[in-house]
Predict the structure.
Amino acid sequence: MKIFAFAGSNSSTSINKKLVVFSLRSFPNDQINLIDLNDYEMPIFSVDREKNGFPKEASLFLENISDCDVIICSLSENNRNFSVAFKNVFDWCSRINPKVFQDKKMFLMTTSPGGFGGGNTMNLAKNIFPAFGANIIQTFSLPKFYDNFDEKQGITNEALLAEFNAKILEFKQNLA
Ligand SMILES: Cc1cc2nc3c(=O)[nH]c(=O)nc-3n(C[C@H](O)[C@H](O)[C@H](O)COP(=O)(O)O)c2cc1C
């Protein structure tokens, strides 16, 4: 199985990327394509700029999706919304193909240092991603990242780890 994995963040120390990397431990036998959103930096989307064509990075991002079987991602939350870095990729891609996520099955995550764990962004993504072709199979939000995650160990809170593992299992069962 081919997994396309990304964090919706352009931070070099992204906690969402750390969560994505941790989640990939659950897929040791699969082909992983983990990208860095910084490699998909484009001018800020505008209807004027798109008249001159689409940046190659947007097409590449969409190719990553068309090449995969499933998407595993974790979105960061800025001002209760997507990061600007992700939104820009999303906007450009949506102009090339409104079905950005191309009906691929998705394990959707968020995390933040706060107690809601990026829950606003999770709710936003849950509401709108299906209209853009996302087949969201399972979701997980990790609250208080710095209290509940260790770089080596991963999720340290027992209850949250159990929830995460149960959701990964359900996701895998859906793929079978
Ligand atoms: C401009 C800005 C706005 C933020 N707004 C929120 C927010 O609304 N909710 C939240 O939980 N965290 C918020 N945060 C904290 C981020 O969740 C935190 O920086 C986190 O590390 C971002 O994820 P990343 O490391 O994967 O980029 C904000 C951070 C910044 C810089």
Q: What stands out?
A: Residues 7, 9, 11, 14-16, 76-80, 112-114, 116, 118 surround flavin mononucleotide (CB under 6 Å). The longest strand covers residues 135-142.
